[in-house]
Automatic annotation (TrEMBL):
Signal peptide: none annotated. Belongs to the mitochondrion-specific ribosomal protein mL39 family. It is found in: Mitochondrion. This is Large ribosomal subunit protein mL39.
Length: 329
Protein backbone atom coordinates (compact mmCIF):
# COMPACT_ATOMS: atom_id res chain seq x y z
CA UNK A 1 0.00 0.00 0.00
CA UNK A 2 2.83 2.41 0.87
CA UNK A 3 4.51 1.76 -2.47
CA UNK A 4 1.24 2.35 -4.29
CA UNK A 5 0.77 5.66 -2.45
CA UNK A 6 4.28 6.79 -3.40
CA UNK A 7 3.63 5.86 -7.05
CA UNK A 8 0.38 7.81 -7.01
CA UNK A 9 2.09 10.90 -5.57
CA UNK A 10 4.88 10.63 -8.14
CA UNK A 11 2.34 10.29 -10.95
CA UNK A 12 0.51 13.37 -9.69
CA UNK A 13 3.73 15.40 -9.60
CA UNK A 14 4.61 14.35 -13.12
CA UNK A 15 1.13 15.23 -14.34
CA UNK A 16 1.28 18.61 -12.56
CA UNK A 17 4.54 19.33 -14.33
CA UNK A 18 2.99 18.27 -17.63
CA UNK A 19 0.09 20.71 -17.29
CA UNK A 20 2.32 23.61 -16.29
CA UNK A 21 2.67 24.52 -19.98
CA UNK A 22 -0.43 23.41 -21.82
CA UNK A 23 0.09 22.69 -25.54
CA UNK A 24 -2.36 23.88 -28.23
CA UNK A 25 -5.91 22.47 -28.12
CA UNK A 26 -5.41 20.41 -31.29
CA UNK A 27 -2.37 18.72 -29.76
CA UNK A 28 -4.24 17.99 -26.53
CA UNK A 29 -7.15 16.43 -28.46
CA UNK A 30 -4.73 14.33 -30.52
CA UNK A 31 -3.06 13.04 -27.35
CA UNK A 32 -6.41 12.14 -25.74
CA UNK A 33 -7.54 10.33 -28.88
CA UNK A 34 -4.31 8.35 -29.11
CA UNK A 35 -4.55 7.14 -25.51
CA UNK A 36 -8.26 6.33 -25.94
CA UNK A 37 -7.61 4.29 -29.12
CA UNK A 38 -4.69 2.44 -27.52
CA UNK A 39 -6.71 1.44 -24.45
CA UNK A 40 -9.73 0.51 -26.57
CA UNK A 41 -7.55 -1.80 -28.69
CA UNK A 42 -6.02 -3.33 -25.56
CA UNK A 43 -9.44 -4.12 -24.10
CA UNK A 44 -10.67 -5.63 -27.36
CA UNK A 45 -7.59 -7.85 -27.47
CA UNK A 46 -8.70 -9.40 -24.17
CA UNK A 47 -11.13 -11.49 -26.24
CA UNK A 48 -8.83 -13.13 -28.84
CA UNK A 49 -11.32 -15.84 -29.77
CA UNK A 50 -15.05 -15.72 -30.28
CA UNK A 51 -17.07 -16.90 -27.30
CA UNK A 52 -20.85 -17.01 -27.44
CA UNK A 53 -23.19 -15.56 -24.83
CA UNK A 54 -26.98 -15.68 -24.52
CA UNK A 55 -28.90 -12.41 -24.40
CA UNK A 56 -32.52 -12.66 -23.27
CA UNK A 57 -34.40 -9.66 -24.65
CA UNK A 58 -36.95 -7.89 -22.46
CA UNK A 59 -39.61 -5.38 -23.44
CA UNK A 60 -42.94 -5.15 -25.28
CA UNK A 61 -43.19 -7.83 -27.98
CA UNK A 62 -39.75 -9.25 -27.19
CA UNK A 63 -40.60 -11.73 -24.45
CA UNK A 64 -39.00 -15.09 -25.21
CA UNK A 65 -36.54 -13.60 -27.71
CA UNK A 66 -33.08 -15.09 -27.16
CA UNK A 67 -30.07 -13.84 -29.11
CA UNK A 68 -26.72 -15.60 -29.39
CA UNK A 69 -24.06 -12.88 -29.41
CA UNK A 70 -20.26 -12.55 -29.15
CA UNK A 71 -18.71 -11.98 -25.73
CA UNK A 72 -16.71 -8.77 -25.47
CA UNK A 73 -17.65 -7.75 -29.02
CA UNK A 74 -21.42 -7.48 -29.33
CA UNK A 75 -23.14 -4.43 -27.86
CA UNK A 76 -26.78 -3.65 -27.05
CA UNK A 77 -26.87 -1.87 -30.42
CA UNK A 78 -25.70 -5.11 -32.08
CA UNK A 79 -28.68 -6.82 -30.44
CA UNK A 80 -31.03 -4.08 -31.67
CA UNK A 81 -29.77 -4.70 -35.21
CA UNK A 82 -31.09 -8.27 -34.95
CA UNK A 83 -34.58 -6.94 -34.20
CA UNK A 84 -36.23 -4.13 -36.19
CA UNK A 85 -35.31 -0.76 -37.65
CA UNK A 86 -37.43 0.83 -34.91
CA UNK A 87 -35.18 -0.63 -32.21
CA UNK A 88 -32.04 0.54 -34.04
CA UNK A 89 -33.16 4.14 -34.61
CA UNK A 90 -35.06 4.75 -31.36
CA UNK A 91 -32.96 2.98 -28.72
CA UNK A 92 -30.91 5.43 -26.64
CA UNK A 93 -29.70 3.37 -23.69
CA UNK A 94 -29.95 -0.14 -22.28
CA UNK A 95 -30.46 -2.08 -19.08
CA UNK A 96 -28.23 -5.14 -18.69
CA UNK A 97 -29.44 -7.32 -15.81
CA UNK A 98 -31.06 -4.15 -14.46
CA UNK A 99 -27.86 -2.07 -14.70
CA UNK A 100 -27.70 1.03 -16.89
CA UNK A 101 -25.54 0.24 -19.90
CA UNK A 102 -24.38 2.46 -22.79
CA UNK A 103 -25.72 1.24 -26.11
CA UNK A 104 -22.21 0.86 -27.57
CA UNK A 105 -20.52 -0.81 -24.58
CA UNK A 106 -19.62 -4.48 -25.28
CA UNK A 107 -21.48 -7.20 -23.39
CA UNK A 108 -19.21 -9.41 -21.30
CA UNK A 109 -21.56 -12.14 -20.07
CA UNK A 110 -24.89 -13.85 -20.70
CA UNK A 111 -27.60 -11.46 -19.54
CA UNK A 112 -31.08 -10.05 -19.87
CA UNK A 113 -31.28 -6.89 -21.97
CA UNK A 114 -33.85 -4.11 -22.16
CA UNK A 115 -33.56 -1.39 -24.79
CA UNK A 116 -34.70 2.03 -23.56
CA UNK A 117 -36.31 4.77 -25.67
CA UNK A 118 -37.69 8.27 -25.08
CA UNK A 119 -41.24 6.97 -25.53
CA UNK A 120 -41.12 4.30 -22.82
CA UNK A 121 -43.88 4.45 -20.21
CA UNK A 122 -41.25 5.70 -17.75
CA UNK A 123 -38.47 7.51 -19.65
CA UNK A 124 -36.80 8.92 -16.50
CA UNK A 125 -33.47 7.11 -17.00
CA UNK A 126 -33.28 7.99 -20.69
CA UNK A 127 -34.18 11.63 -20.05
CA UNK A 128 -31.45 11.93 -17.42
CA UNK A 129 -28.87 10.40 -19.77
CA UNK A 130 -30.08 12.71 -22.55
CA UNK A 131 -29.58 15.79 -20.35
CA UNK A 132 -26.04 14.57 -19.55
CA UNK A 133 -25.40 14.04 -23.25
CA UNK A 134 -26.63 17.51 -24.22
CA UNK A 135 -24.29 19.01 -21.61
CA UNK A 136 -21.43 16.89 -22.98
CA UNK A 137 -22.19 18.21 -26.46
CA UNK A 138 -22.12 21.78 -25.15
CA UNK A 139 -18.72 21.15 -23.55
CA UNK A 140 -17.40 19.78 -26.82
CA UNK A 141 -18.51 22.93 -28.65
CA UNK A 142 -17.02 25.25 -26.02
CA UNK A 143 -13.66 23.49 -26.14
CA UNK A 144 -13.23 24.30 -29.84
CA UNK A 145 -15.12 27.61 -30.04
CA UNK A 146 -12.08 29.77 -29.29
CA UNK A 147 -8.76 30.15 -31.02
CA UNK A 148 -5.75 28.15 -29.85
CA UNK A 149 -4.56 31.36 -28.21
CA UNK A 150 -7.23 30.93 -25.53
CA UNK A 151 -7.43 27.99 -23.12
CA UNK A 152 -10.75 26.40 -22.14
CA UNK A 153 -11.00 24.32 -18.95
CA UNK A 154 -14.17 22.22 -18.80
CA UNK A 155 -15.26 21.66 -15.23
CA UNK A 156 -17.55 18.88 -14.05
CA UNK A 157 -21.09 18.91 -15.40
CA UNK A 158 -23.54 20.09 -12.69
CA UNK A 159 -26.15 17.53 -11.70
CA UNK A 160 -29.40 19.21 -12.71
CA UNK A 161 -32.73 17.46 -13.33
CA UNK A 162 -34.61 17.89 -16.60
CA UNK A 163 -37.20 19.86 -14.62
CA UNK A 164 -34.59 22.60 -14.01
CA UNK A 165 -35.34 23.83 -17.52
CA UNK A 166 -31.76 23.81 -18.85
CA UNK A 167 -28.75 21.54 -19.00
CA UNK A 168 -25.50 23.10 -17.81
CA UNK A 169 -21.79 22.98 -18.45
CA UNK A 170 -19.42 24.85 -16.12
CA UNK A 171 -16.27 26.21 -17.69
CA UNK A 172 -13.29 28.46 -17.03
CA UNK A 173 -12.13 30.41 -20.05
CA UNK A 174 -8.72 31.93 -20.62
CA UNK A 175 -8.07 34.90 -18.25
CA UNK A 176 -7.74 37.07 -21.36
CA UNK A 177 -11.50 36.57 -21.82
CA UNK A 178 -12.51 37.55 -18.27
CA UNK A 179 -14.03 40.83 -19.47
CA UNK A 180 -15.80 39.21 -22.44
CA UNK A 181 -19.60 39.12 -22.40
CA UNK A 182 -21.17 36.85 -25.02
CA UNK A 183 -23.63 38.48 -27.40
CA UNK A 184 -26.72 36.87 -28.89
CA UNK A 185 -24.68 36.25 -32.03
CA UNK A 186 -22.05 34.46 -29.91
CA UNK A 187 -24.75 32.17 -28.51
CA UNK A 188 -26.10 31.55 -32.00
CA UNK A 189 -22.58 30.64 -33.13
CA UNK A 190 -22.30 28.09 -30.31
CA UNK A 191 -25.70 26.72 -31.26
CA UNK A 192 -24.58 26.30 -34.88
CA UNK A 193 -21.52 24.40 -33.66
CA UNK A 194 -23.72 21.99 -31.72
CA UNK A 195 -26.11 21.56 -34.63
CA UNK A 196 -23.20 20.60 -36.89
CA UNK A 197 -22.24 17.81 -34.47
CA UNK A 198 -25.87 16.68 -34.33
CA UNK A 199 -26.08 16.62 -38.13
CA UNK A 200 -22.97 14.40 -38.26
CA UNK A 201 -24.79 11.85 -36.06
CA UNK A 202 -21.60 11.05 -34.13
CA UNK A 203 -21.59 8.16 -31.66
CA UNK A 204 -20.61 8.49 -28.02
CA UNK A 205 -18.11 5.64 -27.64
CA UNK A 206 -17.92 4.46 -24.02
CA UNK A 207 -14.77 3.07 -22.43
CA UNK A 208 -14.43 2.02 -18.79
CA UNK A 209 -10.83 2.51 -17.67
CA UNK A 210 -8.58 2.50 -14.62
CA UNK A 211 -7.75 5.85 -13.00
CA UNK A 212 -4.17 5.67 -14.30
CA UNK A 213 -5.38 5.45 -17.91
CA UNK A 214 -7.85 8.29 -17.39
CA UNK A 215 -5.12 10.42 -15.84
CA UNK A 216 -2.93 9.80 -18.86
CA UNK A 217 -5.80 10.84 -21.13
CA UNK A 218 -6.32 14.10 -19.20
CA UNK A 219 -2.69 14.69 -18.27
CA UNK A 220 -2.86 18.28 -19.56
CA UNK A 221 -5.71 19.28 -17.24
CA UNK A 222 -5.13 19.76 -13.52
CA UNK A 223 -8.86 19.91 -12.92
CA UNK A 224 -9.58 16.63 -14.73
CA UNK A 225 -6.75 14.88 -12.89
CA UNK A 226 -8.45 15.71 -9.61
CA UNK A 227 -11.88 14.78 -10.97
CA UNK A 228 -10.60 11.36 -12.09
CA UNK A 229 -9.47 10.57 -8.55
CA UNK A 230 -12.80 11.63 -7.10
CA UNK A 231 -14.93 9.68 -9.56
CA UNK A 232 -12.79 6.56 -9.10
CA UNK A 233 -13.23 6.84 -5.32
CA UNK A 234 -17.01 7.03 -5.79
CA UNK A 235 -17.10 3.97 -8.07
CA UNK A 236 -17.40 0.55 -6.34
CA UNK A 237 -15.02 -0.93 -8.94
CA UNK A 238 -12.58 1.96 -8.62
CA UNK A 239 -12.83 2.71 -12.33
CA UNK A 240 -14.09 5.66 -14.39
CA UNK A 241 -16.05 5.99 -17.61
CA UNK A 242 -14.75 8.08 -20.46
CA UNK A 243 -16.40 8.71 -23.83
CA UNK A 244 -15.26 9.76 -27.27
CA UNK A 245 -17.40 11.78 -29.66
CA UNK A 246 -15.62 12.48 -32.92
CA UNK A 247 -12.20 13.67 -31.77
CA UNK A 248 -13.42 14.89 -28.36
CA UNK A 249 -12.74 12.73 -25.28
CA UNK A 250 -14.60 13.47 -22.06
CA UNK A 251 -14.97 12.20 -18.52
CA UNK A 252 -18.57 11.39 -17.66
CA UNK A 253 -20.32 11.08 -14.34
CA UNK A 254 -23.20 9.14 -15.85
CA UNK A 255 -24.19 7.20 -18.97
CA UNK A 256 -24.70 9.05 -22.25
CA UNK A 257 -27.14 8.21 -25.02
CA UNK A 258 -25.95 6.43 -28.15
CA UNK A 259 -25.36 9.26 -30.64
CA UNK A 260 -25.65 12.98 -31.27
CA UNK A 261 -28.30 12.39 -33.96
CA UNK A 262 -30.83 11.58 -31.24
CA UNK A 263 -30.88 15.32 -30.50
CA UNK A 264 -33.19 17.45 -32.63
CA UNK A 265 -34.10 20.89 -31.32
CA UNK A 266 -30.99 22.24 -29.60
CA UNK A 267 -30.08 25.76 -28.57
CA UNK A 268 -27.39 27.36 -26.40
CA UNK A 269 -29.37 29.86 -24.34
CA UNK A 270 -26.96 31.57 -21.94
CA UNK A 271 -23.44 31.89 -20.60
CA UNK A 272 -23.64 33.22 -17.04
CA UNK A 273 -20.71 34.48 -14.99
CA UNK A 274 -20.63 32.82 -11.57
CA UNK A 275 -17.63 34.66 -10.16
CA UNK A 276 -14.08 33.77 -9.23
CA UNK A 277 -13.51 30.16 -8.24
CA UNK A 278 -10.51 28.02 -7.43
CA UNK A 279 -9.67 27.65 -11.12
CA UNK A 280 -10.43 31.16 -12.36
CA UNK A 281 -13.52 33.05 -13.45
CA UNK A 282 -16.17 30.36 -13.51
CA UNK A 283 -19.02 30.50 -16.00
CA UNK A 284 -22.11 28.38 -16.55
CA UNK A 285 -23.13 27.66 -20.12
CA UNK A 286 -26.75 26.58 -20.45
CA UNK A 287 -28.90 25.13 -23.17
CA UNK A 288 -32.17 23.52 -24.11
CA UNK A 289 -32.86 20.49 -26.26
CA UNK A 290 -35.54 18.01 -27.21
CA UNK A 291 -34.86 14.61 -28.78
CA UNK A 292 -35.89 13.61 -32.27
CA UNK A 293 -38.98 11.77 -31.01
CA UNK A 294 -40.31 14.67 -28.91
CA UNK A 295 -40.45 17.84 -30.99
CA UNK A 296 -42.15 21.04 -29.78
CA UNK A 297 -44.08 23.72 -31.67
CA UNK A 298 -42.12 26.95 -32.08
CA UNK A 299 -44.39 28.86 -29.67
CA UNK A 300 -43.85 26.24 -26.96
CA UNK A 301 -40.14 26.18 -27.74
CA UNK A 302 -39.95 29.98 -27.34
CA UNK A 303 -41.38 29.77 -23.82
CA UNK A 304 -39.06 26.91 -22.90
CA UNK A 305 -36.12 28.88 -24.26
CA UNK A 306 -36.92 31.91 -22.09
CA UNK A 307 -36.89 29.69 -19.04
CA UNK A 308 -33.65 27.98 -20.11
CA UNK A 309 -31.88 31.35 -20.32
CA UNK A 310 -32.35 32.01 -16.59
CA UNK A 311 -29.45 31.01 -14.35
CA UNK A 312 -29.79 27.50 -12.97
CA UNK A 313 -28.65 27.65 -9.36
CA UNK A 314 -26.49 24.69 -8.39
CA UNK A 315 -24.49 24.28 -5.17
CA UNK A 316 -20.77 24.55 -5.85
CA UNK A 317 -19.53 20.96 -6.27
CA UNK A 318 -16.74 19.68 -4.04
CA UNK A 319 -14.82 18.89 -7.21
CA UNK A 320 -14.14 22.61 -7.62
CA UNK A 321 -11.67 22.54 -4.73
CA UNK A 322 -8.06 23.00 -5.87
CA UNK A 323 -5.54 20.22 -5.31
CA UNK A 324 -3.90 21.99 -2.36
CA UNK A 325 -7.22 22.41 -0.54
CA UNK A 326 -8.25 18.83 -1.29
CA UNK A 327 -5.05 17.44 0.22
CA UNK A 328 -4.89 19.79 3.19
CA UNK A 329 -8.36 18.99 4.48
Amino acid sequence: MAARSVCRQLHRRLCSAAVAVRPPTAEVRSHRNAVFSREQARQRALYPRVEKIEVAMQGPGLEGTLLIMNKGMSTPLSCAQHLTEYHVTNSALALVDGELWPLLQPLTHSCSLTLLTFKDSDPTLVNKAYWHSCAALLGQVLETAFKDDFTVELLSTPEVPVTSGAFCCDVVLDPQLDSWTPSEESLRSLTRGAQQLIYQDLVWEPLEVTPSVAQEVFSHSRYKLEEVEQKAAQNPKGRVMIYRCGDHVLLSGGPLVARTGLCFQYEVTALHTLGQGSWGLQRRAQGLSLPLQLQAHHTVWSKLRQRAAKLVEVPRPEEAAPPSAAHSS
